[in-house]
Design a protein that fits this description.
CATH class of the largest domain: Alpha Beta
CATH architecture of the largest domain: 3-Layer(aba) Sandwich
Distance between the termini: 65 Å
CATH superfamily of the largest domain: Periplasmic binding protein-like II
Number of domains: 2
Radius of gyration: 21 Å
Oligomer: single chain
Structural class: alpha/beta
Strand content: 15-25%
Bound molecules: pentane-1,5-diamine
Order of helices and strands: HHEHEHEHHEHHHEHHEHEHEEHHHHEH
């Protein structure tokens, strides 16, 4: 039967350019965020071809979404950003009758995501994680000795300590909302504050450590950490684990660790959603449903080292991942996480202005 279907699909492709165009699904996802063979498997199962593009910033995705006619059928915004994008009318309501695999999802985690999207009407959780610190254990020990505060934001936010690590390289995510939240929390303010004065205090701290930061980038750090080209990154949980994995494979004696600092960290959810301008909404639903397959989700988590919200996948998730407190944090650590804040236009403008100043070091 499968053979027959794919023959029909092939014929359709050959005779009808319109049909052929409809058969291609345009997916826009974060970089380093899917197992190597997932897309191949999707095409084999559904006959739907995929063009797959990547980004490493919510701001970049948002600019495309708000401009309209993005050309994408499925995208993966973080829930906090998605909240205001939904308000702007950017995403369609999901047709849940086309998503039988919703039954696999963890009700508690979907409820957490529903804070940003009531009733999970527009999106399902793809992966979730934290924004913490990745570090090269040996490089840090060499520079700071046994007293290295590797369990704390001190490592990157205390200017005296950051100064000692500048030579081996510190990188920050180019993610203003996440860095400012961590900085505000560090100086004793509410990490979810939207007050201008608080954001400015966070920015002051980041400006103070700016001379010791080598770069701001949200994907380059994976290979740089793995190769020993930098030694500390404020980064996303799974990305740091991927760096650890790559370092192990390269076998250059680099050892990478990830920590959710004891002061706490941002917890975020990345969501699968369908832009209103999608020309292929049926295929988009098929894709989202496929991404909620228990085995497919487990394969993805086992490859990207991010936690998922798919309960049925858990028996297939590797023990090493399930048991890592940096990936699936235990309750006492969870209690210290804060959920990402949704910023309105006004606060967003304040942040953008502060962020430019921080990056240029002025
Ligand atoms: C994958 C990064 C996804 C996490 N490289 C950002 N929310």
């Amino acid at each position: 039967m499968k053979k027959l279907l794919s023959m029909t699909a092939l014929l359709a492709l050959a005779i009808s350019p319109v049909l052929a165009a409809e058969k291609v699904l345009h997916v826009y996802n974060w970089s380093d965020y899917i197992a190597e063979d997932t897309i191949e498997k999707f095409t084999a199962e559904t006959g739907i071809e995929v063009t797959y593009d990547v980004y490493d910033s919510n701001e970049v995705l948002e600019a495309k979404m708000l401009a309209g006619s993005s050309g994408y059928d499925v995208v993966t915004p973080s829930a906090d950003f998605m909240n205001r994008q939904i308000a702007a009318g950017v995403y369609v309501k999901l047709d849940k009758s086309k998503l039988p695999n919703l039954k696999n999802m963890d009700a508690g985690l979907m409820k957490q995501a529903a804070v940003f999207d009531p009733d999970n009407a527009h999106a399902v959780v793809y992966m979730w994680g934290t924004t913490g610190i990745g570090y090269n254990t040996k490089a840090i020990a060499e520079r700071l000795g046994d007293s290295a505060p590797t369990d704390s934001w001190d490592l990157v936010f205390d200017p005296a300590i950051a100064a000692k690590l500048a030579d081996c390289g510190i990188s920050f995510l180019d993610a203003p909302t996440e860095l400012l939240a961590a900085a505000m929390n560090y100086v004793g303010l509410d990490p979810r504050s939207t007050k201008k004065a608080d954001l400015e205090k966070g920015a002051e701290l980041l400006t103070a450590v700016r001379p010791h930061i080598r770069y701001f980038h949200s994907s380059q750090y994976i290979s740089d950490l793995a190769n020993g080209d930098i030694c500390v990154s404020v980064g996303w949980s799974g990305d740091i684990f991927q760096a650890r994995d790559r370092a192990g494979e390269a076998d250059k004696g680099v050892e990478v660790s990830y920590v959710i600092p004891k002061e706490g960290a941002t917890q975020w959810f990345d969501m699968l959603a369908i832009p209103v301008d999608s020309k292929n909404k049926d295929a988009a639903h098929a894709y989202i449903n496929f991404m909620m397959d228990a085995q497919i989700t487990a394969n993805n988590t086992n490859y990207v080292w991010y936690a998922n919200a798919n309960r049925a996948s858990m028996p297939m998730v590797e023990e090493e991942i399930k048991e890592d407190p940096g990936i699936f944090p235990p309750l006492d650590v969870q209690a210290k996480l804060w959920s990402a804040q949704v910023y309105n236009k006004r606060t967003d403008r304040v942040m953008t202005r502060l962020w430019t100043k921080i990056q240029t070091g002025k």
